[in-house]
Amino acid sequence: MSRPPPFTWIRIAALLVLLTACGRPFEKLRLPTGDGSVQTPLQAATVWTVGGRDARGNYTGRVELIPDGQGYRFLRVIDYDPAVWVEDGRSLAWVWEGVGSLNTDGSLSIQVALQRADFIKRRGSLVRTGADAQPVAVQGRFVPAAGTLAGSFTGPGIAAKETWSSPNPGGPRPIFERRVTERPTHGTLSEAERAALFLGFSSYHALPEIQPYVDRPEFKNPVHRVIIDQTDFDFYQQHPNSLRVIGKVVDPISLQETLARADAYKWTLGGKAAFYDEDVARHSIDPATGMVFEAVADTVGGIPSHDSALWTGAYVASQAYRARITGAPEAVNHIVRSVQGLLTLAEITGDRRTFARTLRAAKGNPMPPWHAGQGPYAALEWKEGGNNDMFKGVMYGLTTTHALLCERPTGHDALCARIRANVRQIADRLELTQDHGLNRLAALWLAAYVTRNLSYLLRATQEWNLQAPILDQGNVTMVYKNGIADWSGTHLALVEYMMFRLLADRYSLPGIDAGSTLRHGIEKIYREFSKVRMGLWSVPFAKLGTSPHPDAAETARWRLRELPAPKPQLDVDHRIRPDYVMSPFPSAPWKQDWTQNDRTQSLRSYPLFQATAYTVYDWKQSPFEYRSNNTGLAYPGVDYLIAYWLGRYVGVFSAEE
Description:
Elements: H1 6-22, E1 30-32, E2 39-41, E3 46-54, E4 57-68, E5 71-80, E6 85-86, E7 90-102, E8 108-114, E9 120-123, E10 126-127, E11 136-145, E12 148-155, E13 158-169, E14 180-184, H2 191-200, H3 202-205, H4 217-220, E15 225-229, H5 233-238, E16 242-246, H6 252-265, H7 269-284, E17 293-297, E18 301-304, H8 308-326, H9 329-347, E19 358-361, E20 370-372, E21 380-383, H10 388-405, H11 413-429, H12 438-451, H13 454-472, H14 487-506, H15 514-529, H16 538-543, H17 550-562, E22 571-573, E23 604-605, E24 627-629, E25 633-634, H18 638-650
Parallel strand pairs: 7-16, 15-23
Antiparallel strand pairs: 1-2, 3-4, 3-13, 4-5, 5-7, 6-7, 7-8, 8-11, 9-10, 9-22, 11-12, 12-13, 14-15, 17-18, 17-25, 19-21, 20-21, 22-24
Helix pairs in contact: 7-18, 8-9, 8-10, 8-18, 9-10, 9-11, 10-12, 10-14, 11-12, 12-13, 12-14, 13-15, 14-15
């Protein structure tokens, strides 16, 4: 059920008590009709046309009074004249919610509480402080005059005069509605479980960051929840060049908060994909290496990513799905550029037992962990530390590229030969694929696929028999409990499942129904994580488990809608909200390092446009993060592209959405 934030209900209830004490019952209120000739009791929702002016300029709009107990629920929705614009030339709209009552002198009083502190802590020189947790009180008084209601609003920074005219019955829905829900992601803890966990985390609770919350009821009886805020999606679909501030003061921070919502909801899914396809290719790929940047900084330009092997593999996969669906030649060009970077990772070190983590254009005299490339790679430098996580990105990119470009003549013979040579080296010599495990299975199966070598095929089949029970049960890393999971590991597991699914389709293991095992594993993961609104994982949940899940398809759709384009540069800290509560459980508790490292997390998961989603790759982040600062950094949209094009590829999204 849609609802305002918790503290809004408290404010409204308090105001109603106050107004009831000094006003008259609503059924006695008599307000002018359209022609002013008859005074009628206001016993049903009534909407007026509004015209007025404040310090910003002229505005028009509507107000609605809805009988509510002994008073009225008050809604005001105004649009400023086109000459009044904010941010990058967008028109400004404003929504107020409050309460009203009739005074003994026949006038109408309105009370509105405008929010200051929400989720952005700082913008430029403007900083939210503790005092901003208190709402800004606005009062209005209106009197009948010649068939209208005329009056004004006053409050800190607020001075407006306006007239209400042409009253009409309200429609089936109010003129404005918040569409906000909270859903639990797990059940209530038993008393014994709660006591054991609180004892185990007592040193965590003693941390200064946690102490302000330990007496909060939500902290003492924790249930981690997700907030789903679909408010104004329809508005921005119809008014993509507007900013509509909802229930807040209008200042640089509230406008930036509103801009994040607008830049999330104004797009179609396909339109947002088109933006990110062009933006990533133009700004977020290192032209010297084909690797995905961590970010593009205002001061120094592209920054090499420590995890670029993984993000570049995901980017290549996204463009391979795109090319299969649309046939776009630019998608193939993007693949060719970036997959050469993935191949160089394995070639540049000079030691086939290892591979580089990322690359950059040579700067001269590199210091470890950076090293100079030799011979044909002299123009590059490479970063040591290729590991389990990076391996999965390399394999995902090579698998999707080979399936697209190398199964038939496409004019990319040299690239395909290079892929085959590198995959052989990976399977035979790379230390991450020795002995056994899912990495070993990936290397052998991919080698069998690209070379059609019987030895690789037989060894891959043997390794499958060892690893199938793990895949059937959803991978050992895919466990969610009371707000805690290995969030980075969930993304790695998705890469494995999508890669194995593709290999099973293109080059099946003899006598093995790998697809059935993978579907069963995805279904198991769905049961663990569906309530957390995973976003990327929601795509396979919707279509690739043992049965379709329409709820997962809707989650995937809304999570992609929530991601702004472009990614905004924000200084976010949800602790400035008066209703914020910290989780009593640290993230990654198995590391036992919360007294040395920040392991704090929120009890609530926020929509992506309000959260700390503005990183190089959102799907590896905990959904319960509550603060970040990426001002001055433009992050790539690879995370959007892999989710969208995978969703298109498996039929979760249509081209028209």
